[in-house]
Amino acid sequence: MELINKIKKEGKRITEPREIVCNILEKSGHKHFTAEELFKKAKKVNSSIDLTTVYRTLDLLEELNLIEHSHRIHQSGIYFIKHTKHHVHLSCESCGEIVNINQKTQKQIEKLLLNESNFKNINSHFTYSGHCNKCK
Amino acid sequence: MELINKIKKEGKRITEPREIVCNILEKSGHKHFTAEELFKKAKKVNSSIDLTTVYRTLDLLEELNLIEHSHRIHQSGIYFIKHTKHHVHLSCESCGEIVNINQKTQKQIEKLLLNESNFKNINSHFTYSGHCNKCK
DNA sequence: TTTACTGCAAACGCTTTGCACCCAC
DNA sequence: GTGGGTGCAAAGCGTTTGCAGTAAA
Question: Is the pLDDT of residue B51 over 90?
C-alpha cells in the first residue's frame, strides 16, 4: 500500500488501475516486470484495464522516483521498485533470467569507460546481456 | 573494392545496390553508419535504391563476417567494417558522437560482470551511452 | 463542478517480411 | 532460362500520442 499512498501524498488521484498496478509491483517481492507482464496480471483483476494505462502509471511512478526502469536490446523494458542503492542488471538472452549487478561493480565499469573516453558520465539505464549457466 | 570482391568470391551476385553500399562503407574511413545514413548516401548515387535493400545488404555483409553492428538504446543500430580486434562503442546521447572502447577495457568489464554472476558469457553487441565533454 | 485520468485507436521509429517482377549469372 | 535480388507495401514490436468520455476530488 506504500506506492499508492505516495501517489496520494503527491496530490495525484487514486484510481483502480493505479491501485492494481501498485499492488502487483509491491506484492511480488521487488521483482522485475515488463509492462506487458504487469498488464496481464492487472487484467486478471480488472479485465478492462488498458496497456496504455499501465505505461502511464509506470511513468507516473517513475516521475515520483518510486520505481526505475531499464532497457534491454531487442526486448521490452523492465520496471522495478527503486532500491536504496542503484544497481544494474544482467539478463540471459535465452531464458530471460535477470540478475542484479551491484553498485560497486557498476561504478568500476563506469570508471573504466570514463578513463578511456572524454565522457563526463555514463548512462547505466540499460541491461547487460549474455547467457546464464543453465542456457546453451 | 574489397567488400564487393568478397561477395563475389562467396558466389553471391554483384548488383548495383550492393556495389553502392560497399563503396560507401569502404570509402569513408571505417566510420559507423546507421542504415538510414547509408540509405541517404546510396540514394545520391542511384535514387531508386530502397532502404530494405540496404538492410539486406548489411545483413549479407554481416553473414560474411565483413561488417558488424551494434545496438543503441532508443536509437537505430550502427554498422561498421569489422576490425581485426573486436571493440565496443560509447555514444553521446546528446550529439551522437561515437567513440571506440578498446578490447582490453571491454574484457575487463566482461570479467567484472562474469565474476558477479553465474553467467557464461557477456554480449558486447550494444553501445554504451553517456554524455561527452562538449555536451551539457 | 472540474480536470485528471481513462480506454480505444492510431501513430511512432526501426526493422523485417511477403510478394511479384527483373536481371546477373 | 532460372532463382537470387530487387522495390514496394505492409506488418512487426514496444511504446507513445490524440481524443472524447468518465469519474475522483
Answer: yes
Distance separating alpha carbons of residues B92 and B95, to the nearest angstrom = 6
Residue A136 has pLDDT above 70, yes or no: no
Q: What is the pLDDT of residues A61-117, one digit of tens each?
A: 999 999 999 999 889 999 999 876 777 899 998 888 899 998 899 999 999 999 999
CATH node for B1-84: 1.10.10.10
CA nearest neighbour of A66 among A124, A5, A123, A110: A5
Q: Which nucleotide is nearest to A14 (CA to C1')?
A: D24
CATH (residue range A86-136): 3.30.1490.190
Q: Which of B40, B3, B33 is nearest to B18 (CA)?
A: B3
Tell me: the pLDDT tens digits for B98-117? 999 988 999 999 999 999 99
Domain boundaries along the sequence of chain A: 1-84, 86-136
Chosen for mutation from A101, A120, A132, A133 (greatest number of chain B CBs closer than 10 Å) is A120
Q: Coil, helix or strand for A79? A: strand
- The closest of A11, A59, A64 to A35, measured between CA atoms, is A59
**Residue A4 CA to C18 C1' — how many Å?**
48
Please state the φ and ψ torsions of residue B66, each to the nearest 5 degrees: -95, -25
Partners of B133 on chain A (C-beta within 8 Å) are 118-120
DSSP B22: H
